[in-house]
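Two quick folds needed for the group meeting slides. Do the first one here.
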Amino acid sequence: MDKIYGFKQKDIEQLIGRLENRKEKPLSRVFEEFAEQTGKSKGTVRNMYYALAKKSREDGAFADKYLGGKPISVQKIAEFKEGEERELIKKVLLGRKEGKSARRVIHELAEGDEKKALRFQNKYRNVLKHNQPLLGELSAEIRSESGVSVEAIGVRSNTKMVSDVMLKRLQNEINALIDRISGKLKRENAYLRSRLGELEVENMRLKNVLYGDGGKTARYFNKGGEEKLIH
């Protein structure tokens, strides 16, 4: 048998054996016992069960061979509404702001209901993976309300969200660039003012030469005297 969502054949067969012998035992207890037996986490075993259920519904030959032709039925998970999704993610982020782990916040929100906890956990992971804009929007909203930044654990490295450290570094680099440009402009401006002053002095000297003797020099040049000087 091929792997099912990455799970090994022997693990699937062992889990099926556990399910066949569960009698009236709750599924959660079966998951716990199988997790202890294999060294896997309870969450991994639960995910294996749902993968097995999906395979049994989609592959009749598989169900015939391993489950006596009876697909595993699971209760359909209720879809999240947009407002419910935003509320859940914001509560998890607020918990992160208080120093709690996402897992702990989800456990508290589920109030001990494992199915609800799984539903919340899957939604949170789905948003982390596929809805980065919502994370950024809610993080900015929390920051605006409280003045405190919050980061979601598990956000991919190519996310558009920027940490406070990186933001501060960018701000410092931008400020330094502005200072360098400003300093250069100030030096250029000072040079131009100095040069303008020199030109004004030269202009005054020329005026003194041309008009200092009552305007004789100016009249001389106006009458073509400069040509006589040249020749």
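Then this one, please, same format:
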Amino acid sequence: MLGEPQAVDPEVARTLSRDEVQRSRSFRYERDRRRYVQRRTILRMILGQYLSAPAATIRFSYGPNGKPALDVEDDAGLRFSLASSGEVALYAVTRARRVGVDVEALRPLIDLAGLIARFCTPREASHMAGLAAEERERAAFAVWTRKEAYVKALGEGLSLAPNQVDVSPGADLGAWTIETMVPLPGYVGAVAAEGDDWRVRRLEWAPSRTVPA
């Protein structure tokens, strides 16, 4: 859980790359800028622990659709994904397999039927139509996060339309597995990764660990 973003500590800001600093300056609201710096700094610290490297030395490269990856020769096959919504951020880290993660804060959806029609496959829409009204909204968020996690893992970005991705129960995902999770009450998330021989190991970030060593 990110918590209320505080003023950016200069020592923390120095761990970011030039492009990350420029990106942080593009936010209109200070709160959003602080959140961006906070989650990018934590990402660097997490990856630094896996690589036994200072957070400031972590370098990223970006695929054609913006998917980030470690830009190091000896990355031990490390792959990662990051998503945030409200006060929650999810980080997924794997070795030798692509991974994607997504999270959404549950909230009222004004045009639920319209969203389902635009973003869901016929099979997904049929599955949700059979749910009770109070369950349908949560199911829509679960489907959306599963789609987002899968598309992020593939690195396809906006080039793959959501209604072309079927993540309904029993859907054929080939060599991929997607798991839905509840990181905190009021949120729903999903992680997608290659293969079926993995499991989620959940770790919580200590809020006091805000400055890299």
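Slide caption for protein two: The CA atoms of residues 128 and 135 lie 8 Å apart.
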